[in-house]
Every structure is written in C-alpha cells, then in structure tokens.
Amino acid sequence: MKKILIVGIIIMLLAPFCTVHIKKRLYEKRIENYLIEDMSYRKESIQSIECNWHFAGLPSYWVNVIFSDETNVVYIYFAHDKDHIGQFEYYTIDGTTLSPEQLKHFKRYD
Q: One digit per residue, pLDDT tens: the chain, 110 residues?
C-alpha cells in the first residue's frame, strides 16, 4: 500500500512537467508543418524551431523560429489553435531595430 502511495505521489508531481514538454513538442511540430506545408518553406531553410513556456505568461506558449538565411532575427509564432496559426512578432538577436520591410520572412498575422 505504501509503495502505491509513493508511486501515485511521484506521478502527480511529474505529470505537469510531462504535460508542458508534450505541449511544447506539439506546438513546435504545428509550426514546422505550417511553415513547410502552408507557407512552402523547405525544411533546410529553417535553422531552428523552439517552443517556450512561461508559467505566468499570456499566452503561456510561443514558438521562436530562426531561418537559415536570416540568423539574426527571431520570429515568434503562436499555434494554440490549429486553424489560426500565425506569426505574431519578431526581434533581432543583437538588439538592432528592423522594419518589416527589411525582413525576409515577415508575414503579418491576419
């Protein structure tokens, strides 16, 4: 009985961490599919896709994308709703200010 209780407590403690990890991978995959299938990017043109999570943030999940031909710019995407995936914001890694016209992959979210 004591072993079952201990296993139950461990599962209850690990469940939130597993849920966050699973959602992060789900959102990363959604964005990758969106970029490749809907936006016609080649997989090689995407340098990195990384989902971030913040406990108190709104929204709590967002996905950073860096393209191979524009490694100084991070594009932020949201993928909470499969039907409304889109780019929300961008920033430069070195802190420079770029207008949307200077960006190769900027697409305003509708």
A: 888 888 888 888 888 888 889 999 999 999 999 999 999 999 999 999 999 988 776 677 899 999 999 999 999 999 877 778 889 899 999 999 999 999 999 987 76
User: If DSSP codes are grouped into helix, strand and coil, which group holds residue 67?
Assistant: strand
Rounded CA-CA distance 85/18 in Å is 24
Contact 87, 109 (CB under 8 A): yes
The model carries a pTM of: 0.85
Q: Which two tokens stand for residue 7?
A: 């296993």
Question: Pick from 23, 63, 65, 21: which is nearest to 43 by CA?
Answer: 65
Cα–Cα distances in angstroms (integers) from residue 66 to residues 7, 8, 10, 44, 49, in the given order: 41, 40, 37, 11, 7
CA distance 84 to 98: 26
* 8 A C-beta contact, residue 31 and residue 85: yes
d(C-alpha 7, C-alpha 79), whole Å: 34
